Structure formats: structure tokens, C-alpha cells
UniProtKB/TrEMBL annotation:
Enzyme Commission number(s) from the entry: 3.5.1.4
Molecular functions (GO terms): amidase activity
Leading EC class: hydrolase
NCBIfam families recorded: PRK06170.1
Annotated protein name in UniProt: Amidase
PANTHER family given in the database record: FATTY-ACID AMIDE HYDROLASE, FATTY-ACID AMIDE HYDROLASE 2
Length: 486
């Protein structure tokens, strides 16, 4: 029987019933990778020998009567997670031989839950792209169209799931790096509430794996079904045992509603900084129609919604202020000179990026205070609504673009060119205030490419957008590409 495209939930039930063994699941996944990954290039660091050994141990444990949440389930891990015995490079050539001594906390949690790790998935250089290519491991192709990107920076993980290379994967997200690949590849992903999931060990080489509270960035689950996202989030969620975990246990509140008809949803498909392409707009409307048909209360406007333009500007400044912190001093001086030449009334995102690069600590505090006002606005918003449905990016997967200077790149939206980085505004809508957001498939474009949308929920109420994703999956359904056929 073909198991490569079964869900984790189905696979776990079959393992418990003795219908299949972990060795069989693992061998099928490895065979699929060896057959198809030559053209997709999603698995950049295979670990098949250890995977087969782990599968044998999982079967032996089950024979002894043991059971764990993901016992015997084959999974993949984004290359940027430390994993003892495997390189962690973040795609940076100077670290091609860097080998961490211990597992990231999330790799440890996966192993404790019983998973079989097949290997690591490809990323862009320094995780700094909406694509997944680097000099060490090459380019990952979208399984739906090899001339297009699978997204980034968790593009290898999304491509692996779409191609049947393992049942689950884990990635990270600061600029849509979980959600964009899911959208481009037709799979599911969840960006957790900021601080919900411990990130220790998801760190660039050769930095020490310390329990640092990151700003904006999170780690999270990827899967081929919405229910599998919840299953994996339950394994991943919780404080770092070295810090908050010393004193706190996690108890996520239940979803606000169980029935679609009880949800109150705001639908957005327009942004003041960038147009929404017709294929993505159609996907948003497809989800809106499914909500309405299911009896949910669907609105298109609300005075409670925080200002989208200011949100995008704040996100842009917070994002770039962190990314340039290690720039050489001479580059910082050049940026300050350029920023000083900006017109005071220039409110473009290009100007926001430049200003963000040279924020003083005093200025950063001011921007952060504005973020807190937005967080308060979202708390008020979620007293009247349960979720927001909106795009993840303005277009489906775009053709590979390896232009070295990302600021020179352009994104084509229905025949018109726009600055490449402006498409991040939709991802930033949830990232800037730290809200949870679930990426779900919403159909195919006229060109046959996957289109996804995101469901943004209230802070620390991650089960609410996840439950809404499950209900929408029942109405819209997921899909698998032709490659899924044996």
C-alpha cells in the first residue's frame, strides 16, 4: 500500500492497529526521495541510516506496548535546526563543515515524541529569501512546476511535504517563511504566537544555542492536513526548560468554536501598499464563500482593524533593524547618509526599510511602543471577531529569480512589476504583533499552481485558527499534485 501521502493521524492509527510498521513507512519515504528528489532537491542532508535504525527502535518500542504521539512517523527538519551528527550551515559556504554537538530543543521534542527523522531540508542563504537556494546545496524546485520556487525560507520542507518525502516537517517564520512555502506548494503550516514554541538550537552557525527570546521570529509545524498541524504543534509548544519552563506549564485555551456557523471572520483582499493578484484574490474569495455557506458571519470591513499601512511600516522597520545589526561599521555609516537624505514625507516601504536599518535604540523603542498600541488594537478587534482571512503573498509561486541584490528584484502581479520585498506586508500583518496564523490551501490558479490563504487568530489562542482550518479543509478540501501518484 502507498503510504507516502497519508496524514500523520492516519499513519499513527495504522501503526497502532498493526496495519503497517515504521520500517515500512520509512522505507517507502526513502524510496520516494531517492526516486524523485533528484529534480526537486528538497532533502539537502539525508540521514537514512539513522532513520532506518530509529524506525526499527520505534517498532520494537510499540511491540513492548509503548505509545507516543508520533511514534514511528517519518518527518523532516529544516536545515537551520541544530541536529547532532549533521551539518547546520544556513546555506552559508563558510560553515559547510559546521557540526553542532547537540540537538535543537524542537529536534529533541520530535525524537521524544517518537518520530523518525529522514533528514534536513533546504534553505536560502542565511534564511534571507522567499526562495530556497544556496551555493552548498543548490536550488530547490517547486514540485508543481520545477521552473518556480517552492518559497522560503522553509521551502525545502514545503516541497518535501508536497512531494511525499515524509509526513510532517518543522520550519521557522519571520517574514512568512512557514506560510509562503505552504501557499506556494499546496500544504499547511502554522506560525505560532510569538513565544509559544521554544526556539533554542534554531540558530545560525557557529553561534551558541542559547534560550534567547527572539523578536518577530518563531518556529512551527508544517503538514499536509490541518489536523496534523495541531498534532505537531502539541508536540512543539511549550516554554524552554532552561528558562520559563522552570516555573511554567503550558495550557493552550481551546478553540473558541467547534462549528463553522459560530465563527465571526473578517475577510481582507486589499492592501494599501501592494495589489493582490487575481489568482490569490480568487482564493481568498473561495474561502470567504465556504465560510458564508457554512453559516459563519463574514465581514469585509471593520473600524476595529488596526491601520494596515502603519502596521506594514512598523513591521518593515522592526524586521530590517534586526537583520542589519551585524553589518560592518562602514556600511552603517553609508546607510545613515542615505537615510538622512530621505524626504520627511516619504512614507514608502523603501523609505521604511532604509530608516529601519539605522534605527537608534531610542527610535526602536518608539517603534516598539507603536507595536504595543497595535497589539492592544488587535485585542479589541478579537472581542468582535474570531479570525482574519487574508493573502499570504499577492501571487502564487513565481519563477526562480537569483538576482543577488534582493532590493533590485521585482515581483510581477498581473503584468505589473512591484518591489520584491513589498510582498512581505501580508506576512507582517500577523508577525509584527506576534499573532498566530495558519496557512491553508485555497485551490489552484488558472495556471494550475497552488494558492493559499492565512487565518490569523487571537494571541495565544492558536487552537482557534487551527480549528477553523480543519473546518475549512472539510469544505474546500486539500489537494495533491500529479507527483503523488505511485
Amino acid at each position: 500500500m502507498e503510504w507516502n501521502f497519508r496524514s500523520a493521524e492516519e499513519s499513527a492509527a495504522a501503526l497502532r492497529a498493526g496495519e503497517v510498521s515504521s520500517v515500512e513507512l520509512t522505507d517507502q519515504a526513502i524510496a520516494r526521495i531517492e526516486r524523485d528528489d533528484k529534480v526537486i532537491n528538497a532533502i539537502c542532508v539525508p540521514d537514512f541510516d539513522r532513520a532506518r535504525a530509529a524506525a526499527h527502535r520505534a517498532d520494537q518500542a510499540r511491540a513492548r506496548g509503548e505509545d507516543r504521539p508520533l511514534l514511528g512517523i517519518p518527518v523532516t527538519v529544516k536545515e537551520s535546526y541544530n541536529m547532532a551528527g549533521l551539518p547546520t550551515t544556513w546555506g552559508m559556504p563558510q560553515y559547510h563543515d559546521y557540526m553542532p554537538a547537540e540537538d535543537a530543543v524542537q529536534v529533541s521534542r520530535l525524537k521524544a515524541a517518537g518520530t523518525v527523522v529522514l533528514g534536513k531540508t533546504n534553505v536560502p542563504l542565511g534564511l534571507q529569501d522567499l526562495q530556497s537556494f544556496n551555493e552548498i546545496y543548490g536550488t530547490t524546485n517547486n514540485p508543481w512546476d520545477h521552473h518556480r520556487t517552492p518559497g522560503g525560507s522553509s521551502g525545502g520542507s514545503a516541497a518535501a511535504l508536497a512531494a511525499g518525502f515524509g509526513v510532517l516537517s518543522i520550519g521557522s517564520d519571520i517574514a512568512g517563511s512557514l506560510r509562503t512555502p505552504a501557499h506556494f506548494c499546496g500544504v499547511y503550516a502554522h506560525k505560532p504566537t510569538l513565544g509559544l514554541v521554544a526556539n533554542r538550537g534554531m540558530v545560525p552557525p557557529p553561534e551558541p544555542a542559547l534560550p534567547v527570546d527572539l523578536d518577530l521570529a518563531v518556529v512551527g509545524p508544517m503538514a499536509r492536513t490541518a489536523r496534523d498541524l495541531t498534532l505537531l504543534l502539541d508536540v512543539m509548544a511549550g516554554p524552554d526548560p532552561l528558562t520559563l519552563g522552570v516555573a511554567y506549564d503550558l495550557t493552550l485555551p481551546p478553540a473558541r468554536h467547534e462549528r463553522l456557523s459560530d465563527f465571526r471572520v473578517l475577510v481582507l483582499d486589499e492592501h494599501p501598499f501592494i495589489p493582490t493578484g487575481s489568482a490569490v484574490r480568487a482564493g481568498v474569495n473561495r474561502v470567504a464563500d465556504a465560510l458564508a455557506d457554512g453559516g459563519a458571519r463574514v465581514e469585509r470591513h471593520s473600524p476595529l482593524l488596526p491601520d494596515l499601512a502603519e502596521a506594514a511600516t512598523l513591521y518593515t522597520q522592526l524586521l530590517v533593524s534586526g537583520s542589519v545589526a551585524r553589518f560592518p561599521v562602514e556600511e552603517d555609516e553609508q546607510l545613515r547618509t542615505r537615510a538622512a537624505g530621505l524626504s520627511a514625507d516619504d512614507e514608502s516601504l523603501d523609505a521604511a526599510r532604509l530608516r529601519g536599518m539605522v534605527l537608534s535604540h531610542r527610535d526602536w523603542i518608539s517603534v516598539n511602543n507603536r507595536r504595543e498600541l497595535h497589539r492592544h488594537g488587535w485585542r479589541q478587534f478579537f472581542t468582535e471577531f474570531d479570525a482574519v482571512v487574508c493573502p499570504i503573498t499577492p501571487t502564487p509561486a513565481f519563477p526562480h529569480d537569483h538576482t543577488p541584490n534582493l532590493l533590485e528584484r521585482r515581483i510581477d502581479i498581473d503584468g505589473a512589476e512591484h518591489p520584491f520585498f513589498d510582498q512581505l506586508v501580508w506576512a507582517g500583518l500577523a508577525t509584527m504583533p506576534g499573532l498566530p496564523a495558519t496557512a491553508i490551501p485555497a485551490g489552484l490558479s488558472p495556471d494550475g499552481l497552488p494558492v493559499g490563504v492565512q487565518l490569523i487568530g487571537p494571541m495565544f489562542e492558536d487552537r482557534t485558527p487551527l480549528r477553523l482550518a480543519e473546518l475549512l479543509e472539510q469544505r474546500i478540501g486539500g489537494f495533491t499534485l500529479p507527483l503523488s501518484r505511485p
